[in-house]
Amino acid sequence: MFVGVSIHLSGRRLDSGVRLLGLESVANLLYPVLVALVMLVPVGPTAQGVCLLVLSAIGLPGVVYIAWQRTRPPRAEPGPVLVYRYVLPLLAMAVGTAAAVGLMIGWTLAAYGPALFVFLMFIVGTQNAWDLLLGSRSQLGLLAAQARLT
User: Fold this and answer.
1) Is the distance from CB of 59 to CB of 27 less than 8 angstroms?
2) Cα separation of 52 and 98, whole Å?
3) Residue-wise DSSP of 81-137
4) Would you call the peptide bond into 45 cis, given omega within 30 degrees of 0 as the criterion?
5) 29, 125 Cβ separation under 8 angstroms
């Protein structure tokens, strides 16, 4: 994804929307890697829970900031895309936070939370990277409308 973005976007004008989409893609694909690394560290579940809580505390403001920036008027994306693109990462962060707290208090089922977090973030990160490289349907529709006007 990172090589594809750097090759594809080298000749493209990077407006704020494209930069935010790139930031989203990187964050949505980086956090699962960090969570996987935390879960691979051979320490107790309490220490893993603390590390996951720190990651959630760092990631949640970033996800909220990106969602706030992208949903302010004028927005070019339809409502369902906004829900998919921003509600799923917020849900993933909530799952990550709940899993962290669950691990810290010794709840054994909380060990499944990081896997769900990784799954949700990979789904959104992959779609965002796809939209960034090839253009989302809404962006392609706007480009086609602009081309018809000129």
Assistant:
1) yes
2) 10
3) HHIIIIIHHHHHHHHHHHHHHHHHHT-GGGGGHHHHHHHHHHHHHHHHHHHHHH--H
4) no
5) yes
Q: What is the pLDDT of residues 47-105, one digit of tens each?
A: 999 999 999 999 888 888 877 877 777 666 677 777 778 888 899 999 999 999 999 99
Region of 106 (left: φ > 0; alpha: ψ -120 to 50; beta: rest) is: left
Which tokens is 97 given?
A: 């936070």
Which residue matches tokens 């070019």?
Answer: 76
Q: Is the dihedral of CA 13, 75, 137, 85 positive or negative?
A: positive
Q: What is the distance of C-alpha 91 from the center of its chain?
A: 10
Question: CA quadruple 35, 37, 40, 42: dihedral positive or negative?
Answer: negative
